[in-house]
Amino acid sequence: ERGAAHDAARHDAAGDADGDGTLTLGDALAIMRTAIGVAPEFGDNIGDMNANGEINLDDAITLARICIGVY
């Protein structure tokens, strides 16, 4: 099932920036803010969607695509 909110367990909690157990566009926005340096980094690389060791705009875009069902 795809949509605005996803069960974070299906994605090993990667991307669940606010820790509420769902993946949302709000999480993608939080990752984007971190990537551009206007918000602090998350612990445990929670925003690192592609597991490359960095949090960047690619991670935010990946999560946004998952949330809207086009990934």
Topology, element by element:
Elements: E1 6-7, E2 22-23, H1 25-35, H2 57-68
Antiparallel strand pairs: 1-2
Helix pairs in contact: 1-2
Task: Give a quick rundown of the structure.
This protein has helices at about 25-35, 55-70; strands at about 5, 20-25.
Could you spell the SSE succession in H and E letters?
EEHH
Structural class: mainly alpha
**CA(first)-CA(last) distance:** 12 Å
User: Mean of the pLDDT scores?
Assistant: 85
Largest sheet: 2 strands, antiparallel
Biggest sheet, strands in spatial order?
1-2
Shape: globular
The radius of gyration over CA amounts to 11 Å
Helix fraction? 25-40%
Q: Which descriptors apply to this entry?
A:
mainly alpha; 71 residues; 6% strand; two-stranded antiparallel ribbon; 2 helices
Structural features, described:
With 71 residues, the chain is mainly alpha-helical. It has two helices and two strands. The chain has helices spanning 25-35, 57-68; strands at residues 6-7, 22-23. Strands 1-2 form a two-stranded antiparallel ribbon. α1 (25-35) packs antiparallel against α2 (57-68). The longest helix has 12 residues, at 57-68. It is globular, with a radius of gyration of 11 Å. The model is unreliable at 6-11 (pLDDT under 50).
